[in-house]
Records
---
Amino acid sequence: MHNPQLAANGQLTHLLTLEGLPAPVITHILDSATPFVSFGERDVKKVPLLRGKAVFNLFFENSTRTRTTFEIAAKRLSADVINLNIGASSTAKGESVLDTIDNLTAMDADIFVVRHSESGAAHLIASHLNATGRSHVHVVNAGDGRHQHPTQGLLDLYTIRHYKKAFTALSVAVVGDVLHSRVARSLISGLTTLGTPDVRVVGPQTLIPTAVESLGVRVCHDMREGVAGCDVVVMLRLQNERMKGALLPSTGEYFQYYGLTPDKLALAKPDAIVMHPGPMNRGVEIDSAVADGARAVILPQVTFGIAVRMAVMSLIAGNG
Amino acid sequence: MTTALPDAEVALATLAERMRASVAWDARFVGIYSGGAWIADRLATLLPGEHPVGYLDVAFHRDDYGSAGLKGAGRATKLPFDVDGAAIVLVDDVLFTGRSVRAAINELFDFGRPASIELAVLVDRGGRELPIEATYVGARVAVARDLTVALSRGDDGRLALAFERSGEAG
């Protein structure tokens, strides 16, 4: 099937998933983000790339942090930003997602940033726009269900490349609630596309999806084995709000087995970095001594996240 | 109407001679990536005085962004000095439509308010679309509009000019 996020000439026109996105496209996005990282050095922290464009933040599911980072990114590109908390408005009145999109397109939207609890929502909207001759309107997936969160995956890739330079000799451990994590799925897609030879997913059996090995990763149920000798440790948030049924005995027991503590981190390489997509649960998946320690790059991830989102929006808006 | 291109090293020497008498002793040389950056580096060694060198990526301010997309990926503007109150010489390889220079001036002002900006170019090929003129020119040539004049730098650091038949130029 034609990849709906790429135009006929292979240029990125929507960002829906890192799955199946070619390595040169991913690398181009990461390269494009670099000039935006040093934005803090400017007197004027704004550039006119999206001047006169309207970016609609469509959050069918709440996320203050992701919405804020997209809003900052769009505003620094001089776009007009409209935040819609759809969960509390039209959908509650019975309007379908695509009717909402048609209405907002009639208000001359240029970019939709979409967060939805259902997997495939952004994909559905992009396909609808493409099929109705409105491919000049772009869609960025800001998280769909358990499926993908591509800008988070890209900022994770940017962070890893910033500290480790190349992917082709790296060992990366992704630890925790992989089952519910679209962050993990996006990162794993990107890592394997860019040629990372050793990607491990680490967690209890109940939080690791079945057949995850088909993504090209190794499964470890023992955390010590999982982080041993790795260059990058990516800790995932324990997603309490997504837990259905008794997947875990207690958060205290989870911390004992899978929480990242200084003694477990000591098993990784001496220069290993620690990442976390936020928000962190201290004392559940990560010890404060690690979260605030010298190896943590969790706050640089936030800074890089704005730059990556600026690059993505600039690229797709510039591609037609 | 197209004339032959000059030798880039000769044009660079001419440009430096024309700047020598009037460029401020402490002028900052700011090169536009990538050709202008090479020339700014060379001018800083050729001319007397203290000339800190900076580099500009004009991608954020290009006026063809809507049709050509984001260009110059991976290069960031680097200005290792205070732009406020500085005497600046903007340096580019080829002056054509004037659009790159317009974008470069906007980019500079995002970092502060310079005391003055002059423009030094290796080659002026005519064909301006904006009211922009260079203060210092290494060589003037007449070139058909559909030709691109491209500067390259060899492994030994020597500069060379050549024609390329392609789309855009600045």
Note: The first strand of chain A starts at residue 54 and ends at 59.
---
Amino acid sequence: MSRFKTNKGKESPGINTSSLPDIIFMLLFFFMVTTVMREVTVMVKQNMPSASEVQKLERKSLVSFIYIGEPKESKKYGTNARIQLNDVFAKVEDVPLFVAREKESRDEADRKLLTTSLKVDGDTKMGVVTDVKQELRKSNALKINYSTKKVSADKLKR
Amino acid sequence: MAKRKAPEINAGSMADIAFLLLIFFLVTTTMDIDTGITRKLPPPIDNPDENIDVKDRNVLKILVNSHDMLLVDGKPGSISTLKDKAKDFMAIHPNDPKYPEIKDVEVEELGGRIVKASKGVISLKNDRGTSYGMYIRVQNELARAFNEMKDEASMLYYGVKYTQLVDETKIEVINDLVPVRVSEAEPEDIGGGN
């Protein structure tokens, strides 16, 4: 009589998969919470310049975006740099109204903290950016953020 | 009457449903973090004629023309030396009339210590034809100069780098000692061809 049992003929037990849905749900909730859905379709070219001294934009809910650049559909809209507010092309004169609307849609206590993020294509001329900045000044939206890509300082030197 | 057992729901396909949703969110998620250079615009001026007088020696003028060329303090400059120029300008040079004036600041948080601070201002002017990429590079170099100065001040007074400071009051003190003084002049055409 042998002391050791042989495993011969015995099938390996199947893995219990009953907790699989729980694991998947956990992952699912993580992605659901972290997902930010794109609200606007950007219609201008967005090749951001690089910078090394960047700060993170905090509190995304308090940021309004202004997109400036050459239209992607340059055949239709021409190659001049255009300003995009929400989903439409706009003129410089429309900026104060846009700022006012953005302020209106936030809590009263948060309005002072509103940041305007300028997402400007690197090839744009400063003229239009300066115009937008002047309008922002006039409408008292003084906190701005020049959106850039982050690179290390050594890389910037070529 | 015999008690009827409620039929059990088959949960085997739950994982599949969850997978489906998971894949949807995986695909739609964009994890891009917005980064950028934060600046504060000057408040609108009510009376444009009323100019604040700043002594000439206190201002470092940086001009960028429409060919993306730099003029630093009246001389042609390059982006690679801009940071050091700005730092040199803002550094403390006692009794040197070429450099900005110096004032004494009493810092309560440092035990009433008197610290010398420069009255210098960097004025940045650009043409309407300057490219945005160049403008950001100039802004970045200036930000780098100020960040390095903040680091130095922080190392001197607290022994750690500015980015590693946690205490709010310490950050405040350094921000007060090394204020980011980059003034953007009222826009105007400074020329340089089209």
Note: Strands of chain B lie at 35-40, 59-64, 70-72, 75-77, 102-107, 113-118, 121-126, 182-184.
